[in-house]
Amino acid sequence: MTLLSVQDLRVTFGTADGDVHAVKGVSFDVAAGETVAIVGESGSGKSVTANSLLRLNFGADVRTSGRILLEGRDVLAMSEDEVRAVRGRDVAMIFQDPLTALNPFYTVGRQIAEAYEVHHPGTSKKDLREIALDSLRKVGIPEPTKRVDQYPHEFSGGMRQRIVIAIALVNSPKILIADEPTTALDVTVQAQILELIAAMQQEHGSAVVLITHDLGVVAEITERVMVMYAGRVVESASVVDAFATPTHPYTRGLLKSVKSLDTGRHERLESIPGIPPSLIKLPSGCPFHPRCSFASSLGSRCSTEVPELRAVGSSSSACHLPNERLLDLLGGAHDR
Ligand code: SF4
Questions:
Q1: Is 336 part of any domain?
Q2: Do 210 and 252 share a domain, yes or no?
Q3: Residue whose CA is closest, atom 6 of ligand 1?
């Protein structure tokens, strides 16, 4: 069952230097209980896409168009009051940095209780405390009866992220958006947090939209991946297909730049040449063409024509290369 349907989402920020086209026609669906990852470098539009789901892109001149259907209701057409009712109850967000996501002046118990009370007014103080304790227990905070009255600075980074997850899940949201949830954490804690998100998802049956630049995180807990570049989805595939047979040169570049089990000890990882383009002045044609090693094989087509997302095998790819060539050339992303 489709829970969320994003259709032709476009987000533009007006700035003194010109319009920043952060998201340019993104469409995707998320089913109940599914985990979808949106992957890309900084400036690819992944976080702006995620923020749009809760109308959290702020600024003097933000222009958003398209449709974001949450169980058939368009978030972009809702009143402010309606969006506030959705935030935290139907759709909750786990932010990147737990320290800034938590209020340093309130105990963690109070912050969990407030997140619940805002959608359940009239809940007694006793019940709110029980709910806070239960939430801390579920996310694995030891000694919850003592910790519930402590402040965020009294917790480690990993424990703080557990508290942020407890707040996000206290209303059993249908959709959980996790924006780089492990980036600010020690590597040893990252896996624990990902396992916790996966376990909590199973318990609550929520759909998860995971925003990350880290393909290792994607492999860990997601089923489907969308790769974004310069505000567009350039590849959409199951995680298995994206890793085994990527169908876009950019995805291939991302895979070659991370370590895998096949990487030899003394082998150098490849990086994608160049830098991501300016979103104010995008290159003509395929925005990846200045960095793409396959562009020259297609004459001037790559620098003049924007490729549309189309089916390649069981994936979708926005590249002009013919399907057979894409599968042949890119399927060997792990060959070194
Ligand atoms: Fe590379 Fe051309 Fe495909 Fe863009 S359309 S990814 S430049 S081959």
A1: no
A2: no
A3: 319
The reply to whether 305 falls in a domain is yes
The answer as to whether 243 is a domain residue is yes
CB of 249 shorter than 6 A to ligand 1: yes
What secondary structure does DSSP assign to 23-75, as a single string? EEEEEEEEETT-EEEEE--TTSSHHHHHHHTTT---STTEEEEEEEEETTEEG
User: What is the pTM for the complete model shown?
Assistant: 0.89
Q: Is the Cβ–Cβ distance between 9 and 27 less than 8 Å?
A: yes
Tokens of 25: 């026609």
Is 218 among the domain residues? yes
Residue 319 near ligand 1, beta carbon < 6 Å: yes
Range of the domain at 87: 2-222
Q: In ligand 1, which atom is closest to the CA atom of 303?
A: 7
* Pocket flag, ligand 1, residue 218 (CB < 6 Å): no
Neighbours of 154 (CB within 10 A): 12
The finding on whether 243 has its CB within 6 A of some atom of ligand 1 is no
Output the tens digit of pLDDT for each of the chain's 336 residues: 899 999 999 999 999 999 999 999 999 999 988 999 999 988 899 999 999 999 998 877 999 999 999 999 999 999 999 999 999 999 999 987 888 889 999 999 999 999 999 999 999 999 999 999 999 998 889 999 999 999 999 999 889 989 999 999 999 999 999 998 887 777 778 888 888 888 888 887 889 999 998 887 888 789 999 999 999 999 999 999 999 889 999 999 988 877 655 555 555 656 788 888 888 999 999 999 999 999 988 889 999 999 999 999 899 999 999 888 777 766 555 443
Query: Is the CB of 312 within 6 Å of ligand 1?
Result: no
